[in-house]
Amino acid sequence: MKLLSILALGLILGASVVMAQAPAQSTTPATKAAKPASAPAPSAADIANAKTKGLVWANLNTKVYHYSTDSTYGTTKNGKFMTEADAKAAGYRAAKTGGGSKKSTPPAAK
């Protein structure tokens, strides 16, 4: 009889340990993690000030930086102004378009 009591007690304790480890289920839907608020778009004065300082516009999403001659300079949704050296050090690459500042030359005649 003592063996049966010990066995029953072991089963009860084992079941309570399993129940304690089971994740609690909530009846309310899980909330999504809030996205961090992006900084407000720079004003025309901010853009002009950055151009005079020779800063580039770094797109934080794509890790691409744009020169002041580029049409997207200061206009992407998630970006900031920084020096070109800082952008390169942070792993950013220059945009493939220079904003129309580079003129293509025709191939030399042979």
Shape: rod-shaped
Approximate helicity band: 25-40%
H/E series: HHEEEHE
Q: Averaging pLDDT over every residue, what do you get? A: 76
- Measured distance between first and last alpha carbons: 107 Å
Question: Looking at the chains present, what oligomeric state does this protein adopt?
Answer: single chain
**Pairing-aware structural class of the strands and helices?**
alpha+beta
The radius of gyration is 30 Å
Q: How would you write the strand order of the largest sheet?
A: 3-1-2-4
Number of helices: 3
List how many beta strands DSSP finds.
4
Task: Tell me about the largest β-sheet.
Answer: 4 strands, mixed
Low-confidence stretches: 100-107
State which percent range the strand residues make up: 5-15%
Can you give a write-up of this model?
- By secondary structure, this protein is of the alpha+beta class.
- It has a domain at 44-94.
- It is 33% helix and 12% strand.
- It has 3 helices and 4 strands.
- The protein has helices at residues 2-21, 44-53, 84-89; strands spanning 56-59, 64-66, 79-82, 93-94.
- A 4-stranded mixed beta sheet has the order 3-1-2-4.
- A hairpin with a 4-residue loop joins strand 1 and strand 2 (64-66).
- The longest helix is centred in the N-terminal third of the chain and has 20 residues, at 2-21.
- The radius of gyration is 30 Å and the shape is rod-shaped.
